[in-house]
Amino acid sequence: MDTELKEWQECVDVLSLVRLSNDSDSWFWNVENQAGFSVSSVKKERINDRGNSGLPNFEWCKWIPIKCNIMAWRANLDRLATKVNLKRRNVDIPSVMCPFYDEYEESVDHLFTACSLASRVWTAVSAWCNIPPIFAFAFKDLLDIHNSGLLGKKAKKIMLGLVISTVWCIWKARNDLVFNQIRRSPQEIVSEVKSRVMLGLKIGLLVNISIGRSGVNIRCICCNLVALCPFGSRVLCLLAFCPFASEVCF
């Protein structure tokens, strides 16, 4: 009875704030101090709410396929269908161990950072790009590598796309093993990363890349000089495309 009286009093309090008039009903946009609605105000409101959502930030990369971005975004939220996450959702699976080496439980952080196969892939990708070895303790650390102060604006975009493309290829290799019983070596995964990155640079960032007899010719988008990068060694240098490694080229 006390609960019903409390609810009744709350209802009366709410209705007491209502002021009736003979004017026609109308809608008001209460985000801004004006009656008019604008799309820009909605955008501002969503941007302001994003900082208070409690969700981890994710920077989208425009020069790689959207499916790669979505997959990395889900991984950053720990929403990928890894075995640990499936078990957490009461999905009946025979084992939660990592399918690559069956040593540890398959979580997002383990699959992309701690797994022996992933570590070998990141080491090979780092050597290919002529950058210090990529090492991370958690998945979110991978998505923050491109924010290094040593990289220029263009190089940061390339680095972010490289990381997300590598993550996609590792996840694809994992699915091939789980669902198709196809085991891919780290070398095969790295080869796919190279193909995706080179194609993405040519189409997404309009980098002038051509295949010559001696290797890959990358024309600097700024100084128009050509850097020759032979296959099998350091094909792509993220710090600069031109031979002088000048920051102005970014």
Please give a structural write-up.
- This protein has 250 residues and is mainly α.
- It has a domain at 66-209.
- The chain is built from nine helices and three strands, in the order H-H-H-H-H-H-H-H-H-E-E-E.
- A three-stranded antiparallel beta sheet has the order 1-2-3, covered by helices on one side.
- Strand 1 (208-211) and strand 2 form a beta hairpin.
- The protein starts with a helix and ends in a 21-residue tail after the last strand.
- Residues 209-250 have low confidence and may be disordered.
- Pfam families: zf-RVT.
- GO terms for molecular function: RNA-directed DNA polymerase activity.
- This is Reverse transcriptase zinc-binding domain-containing protein.
- Keywords: Nucleotidyltransferase, RNA-directed DNA polymerase, Transferase.
Topology:
Elements: H1 2-16, H2 39-50, H3 66-76, H4 83-88, H5 108-114, H6 116-129, H7 139-142, H8 153-180, H9 186-204, E1 208-211, E2 216-219, E3 226-229
Antiparallel strand pairs: 1-2, 2-3
Organism: Helianthus annuus (Common sunflower)
GO molecular function: RNA-directed DNA polymerase activity
Keywords: Nucleotidyltransferase, RNA-directed DNA polymerase, Transferase
